[in-house]
Amino acid sequence: MTDVDALERILRSAEDIPPERAAEIAARLEKTPIQEVVRLVERSTATRAAVVLRLLSRRRSIAVFDALDAAHQADLIDALGDRAVYEFFAELDPDDRVSLLDELPAEIAGRLLRTLDGSEREITGVVLGYPKGSIGRRMSPEVPHLYEDMSVDETMDKLRRVADDVETIYTLPIISRDRTLVGVISLRELFTAEGSAGVAELMAEPVFASAHDEAEETARWFLPLDILAMPIVDDSGRLVGILTFDDAVDIVEDADSEDTARSGAHEPLQQPYLSTPLLRVVRSRIVWLLVLAVSALLTVQVLDTFEDTLAAAVVLSLFIPLLTGTGGNTGNQAATTVTRALALGDVRPRDVLSVAWREVRVGMLLGALLGTIGLGLASLVYGLDIGIVIGSTLFLVCTMSATVGGVMPIIAKKVGADPAVFSNPFISTLSDATGLIVYFLIAKTVLGL
């Protein structure tokens, strides 16, 4: 058993830890690598996590709190007590503060904001001023103001003075006196240049984004550029903040986690599984289950409509799981592929016809392969007529499901919905119902029922 596992077992009775045992646990926590302490907190309930944070030194407790997801931080607010919360909140970066505030009730968020000093409240307000989902909401406004008419020596002197108060000093935006972004320069270039050289001679053309741009889209095109940070400007081209590589990674990870959860028919938990309250786990799943249960009634209605057909050829019922499963899987494959392509920018909403035509051909090829196998196997066991029904249905179901699965995420994107919401759960239900209709219509035609 590792030291962290032993600590976790002790903390299961955290409310009853005596003072002398608390000192022992605190000493062990101080010797534990910080990444293991973060893991311990993530696996603990809010009460136990609060105990861990109180037992840590101030420096380590702030570092651990900062490493947690915003939803997890919000759960800890009540358990920690006002003094600790105010201290942790003040130490967060402005963009991380805003993420936490978004998870809190308005009354608590307002109280926390009022505890900040004037300058920290002002820069946090800059980030809060941008819409949710925009890159301005995820940037850091703590960026040094370096002007194009400064020399290298002047720039380095200023960086030394402000280094502790800004987000990064490795990628540096250069601005004009009216704060318009004109270039970028790296610390390496400044460090190796002559002190008397002008910054304007060394700076490069900037790669930048507008503060109102969509956060996920911006982060996805920024990451492949392999640069450490990128300036963010307002609608007039004035510098308002900076997006760092690690913040962009967080944005993409959050988006991917959300897409994965919704593709699996539940809402994202937004914090580690074991530390998520039980009722929140239930809430993340129940709405989707109700929606899918209601939509599954379509399949029941189809079966009821073709009850006489089933009674006349009972063997048809044996193939229902095969056909519905194949249709659902085919649609899900197409939807997942296109959803991912939309997220990466490989596919745009205006490409809907190209995607539809491509998936029609993919579905036909898949259907031809599976249909041929189904025709052969079913004919050997149940006769040629049943083989033709199964083979034809597999061909049409694959073609239809692939097309629908490819198009629906694009339609969702076009109407402003989350493509993942329109993916696997709904496509499976749609494929079940329509696939059964196709199946029974072919059976009635071929078998003369």
Note the main attributes of this structure.
6% strand, globular, 449 residues, mainly alpha, three-stranded mixed beta sheet, 3 domains, MgtE N-terminal fold, Tetracycline Repressor, domain 2
Share of β-strand residues: 5-15%
Poorly predicted spans: none
Average pLDDT, rounded to a whole number, is 84
CATH fold annotation of the largest domain: Tetracycline Repressor, domain 2
**Element-by-element helix/strand order:** HHHHHHHHHHEHEEHHEHEEHHHHHHH
Global structural class: mainly alpha
Tally of strands: 6
| Mass-distribution shape | globular
Corresponding CATH superfamily of the largest domain = SLC41 divalent cation transporters, integral membrane domain
Distance between the termini: 67 Å
What's the quaternary structure here? single chain
User: How is the largest sheet built, in terms of strand order?
Assistant: 1-2-3
Integer-rounded radius of gyration: 29 Å
Major sheet characteristics: 3 strands, mixed
> Which architecture of the largest domain per CATH?
Orthogonal Bundle
Number of helices: 21
SSE blueprint and pairings:
Blueprint: H1 3-11, H2 19-31, H3 34-42, H4 46-55, H5 58-67, H6 70-80, H7 82-91, H8 94-102, H9 106-114, H10 118-128, E1 146-147, H11 152-162, E2 171-175, E3 181-186, H12 187-192, H13 199-202, E4 209-210, H14 215-222, E5 229-233, E6 239-244, H15 245-263, H16 278-305, H17 307-312, H18 320-344, H19 352-382, H20 384-414, H21 424-447
